[in-house]
């Protein structure tokens, strides 16, 4: 009996010791885990502000603000973010708003403007802004005074890249005087809705490198740029005109290297008739359009690359007269791009050229210096063309100075002839 009691007592003591050891083990393990977490947290928190802000740049601004609750180290990081992207649609989706209904857009707009206003008011005002982007809804008008305050903030904080896409109801937005005298601004992107932005007729952006304009006109009215606006940008290197009415436009930009023009709505114009493009440094030219691009005065001595997509919509409002002019207009345009060495044409462009085989045979080849001709499908859509006519290939390649090494690339599934060679007909 005594031995039994002693044995039970020993087992009880051993059990207690095991529990104590387990608690000690768990405690040590917890401490080690906690230490590891603290070490991990310390390693992150010891990173420079620039790296942490780069991490925050990959998430939405609303989420960036929410990181302030993580720790004291993160509390104010968002207030000095250099890149600000205020996107109406993204913020609405995060808030569970169904943007398929126009009244939902209108009801959410005050919340969007409130968020932007509060964000800017609580931001560290000593921190400069590198990039500022404001994208509102085209289904709900934005208050022009709100947009002007955003512009003021960006300009006063040394913005380098400015992107404004905001539909404003009356009164229209008037750009602050500081915008068109900014010495920090390097990139400007603007979208014009119906009479939403008033454009001053005289301004200067001495350090602007990149300009992208969408749905603007170039004439003398209040909401348009002048017919020769780009001479005020002496450092301009890249110009993109998307869905702009460029008829009568004069482009004079001595340092311009890249020019992109796209006009993808067939119902506004029959032809885009520009007056002059003077860009002696231009190396890359790109055009996408349903209508013919016409410009009687063009000179690109340094041109290297051309991308051309002339899409023929053979339906109303096009007439037989327009169809007849399209091949001639295209041939004239390609001749003015004749210094290019690397040429990309869509199958739609080939289709326009093939409308008038006799004209092709009578016309000189446009590219005497061409090294590579690439034919491609427009936006990767299925094209009815099964083979590229040999007359078109001959027209494009027959006068190349590099006929022995000329490369012609065809899209998958499209048959094509060989480039023309004056010696034996083909290479």
Task: Catalogue the unreliable spans.
Answer: 21-31, 422-427
Task: Assess the beta-strand content as a share of residues.
Answer: 15-25%
Based on secondary structure, the structural category is: alpha/beta
Radius of gyration from the alpha-carbon trace, in angstroms? 32 Å
Fraction of residues in helix? 25-40%
Query: Termini separation (Å)?
Result: 111 Å
Average pLDDT level = 82
Apparent shape:
globular
Q: What spatial order of strands do you see in the largest sheet?
A: 1-2-3-5-7-8-10-13-16-17-18-20
Oligomer: single chain
Largest sheet: 12 strands, parallel
Beta strand count:
23
Tally of separate helices: 10
Question: Describe it for me?
Answer:
The protein has 427 residues and is of the alpha/beta class. Among the domains are: 80-208, no CATH class; 304-427, no CATH class. It has ten helices and 23 strands. It has helices at 2-45, 49-56, 61-66, 88-94, 102-122, 144-156, 320-336, 347-353, 357-362, 390-397; strands spanning 83-87, 131-135, 161-165, 173-174, 187-191, 197-198, 210-214, 238-242, 250-252, 258-263, 271-273, 276-278, 284-289, 292-294, 298-299, 305-310, 342-346, 372-376, 387-388, 407-409, 415-416, 420-421, 425-426. A twelve-stranded parallel β-sheet has the order 1-2-3-5-7-8-10-13-16-17-18-20. The protein has a three-stranded parallel β-sheet with strand order 9-12-15, with no helix packed on it. Strands 4-6 form a two-stranded parallel ribbon. It is globular. It starts with a helix and ends with a strand.
């Amino acid at each position: 009996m005594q031995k039994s009691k002693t044995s039970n007592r020993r087992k009880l003591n051993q059990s207690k010791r095991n529990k104590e050891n387990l608690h000690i083990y768990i405690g040590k393990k917890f401490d080690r885990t906690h230490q590891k977490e603290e070490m991990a947290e310390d390693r992150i928190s010891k990173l420079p502000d620039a790296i942490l802000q780069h991490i925050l740049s990959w998430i939405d601004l609303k989420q960036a603000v929410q990181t302030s609750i993580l720790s004291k180290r993160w509390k104010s990081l968002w207030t000095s973010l250099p890149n600000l992207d205020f996107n109406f649609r993204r913020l609405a989706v995060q808030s569970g708003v169904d943007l398929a209904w126009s009244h939902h857009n209108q009801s959410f707009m005050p919340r969007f403007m409130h968020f932007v206003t509060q964000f800017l008011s609580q931001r560290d005002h000593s921190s400069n802004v590198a990039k500022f982007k404001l994208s509102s809804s085209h289904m709900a008008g934005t208050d022009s005074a709100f947009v002007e305050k955003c512009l003021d903030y960006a300009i006063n904080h040394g913005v380098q890249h400015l992107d404004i896409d905001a539909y404003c109801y009356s009164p229209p937005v008037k750009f602050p005087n500081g915008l068109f005298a900014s010495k920090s601004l390097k990139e400007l992107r603007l979208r014009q809705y119906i009479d939403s932005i008033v454009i001053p007729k005289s301004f200067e952006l001495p350090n602007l490198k990149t300009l992208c304009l969408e749905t603007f006109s170039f004439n003398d009215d209040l909401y348009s740029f002048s017919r020769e606006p780009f001479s005020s940008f002496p450092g301009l290197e890249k110009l993109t005109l998307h869905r702009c009415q460029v008829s009568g436009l004069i482009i004079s930009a001595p340092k311009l290297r890249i020019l992109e023009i796209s006009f993808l709505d067939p119902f506004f114009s029959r032809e885009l008739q520009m007056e002059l493009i003077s860009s002696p440094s231009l190396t890359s030219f790109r055009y996408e359009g349903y209508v013919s691009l016409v410009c009687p005065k063009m000179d690109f001595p340094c041109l290297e690359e051309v991308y051309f997509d002339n899409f023929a919509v053979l339906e109303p409002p096009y007439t037989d007269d327009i169809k007849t002019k399209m091949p001639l207009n295209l041939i004239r345009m390609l001749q003015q791009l004749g210094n290019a060495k690397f040429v990309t044409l869509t199958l739609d462009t080939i289709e326009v050229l093939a409308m008038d085989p006799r004209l092709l045979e009578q016309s000189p080849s446009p590219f005497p210096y061409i090294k590579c001709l690439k034919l491609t499908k427009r936006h990767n859509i299925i094209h009815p063309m099964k083979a590229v006519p040999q007359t078109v290939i001959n027209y494009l390649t027959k006068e190349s100075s590099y006929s022995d090494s000329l490369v012609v690339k065809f899209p998958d599934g499209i048959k094509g002839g060989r480039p023309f060679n004056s010696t034996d007909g083909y290479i």
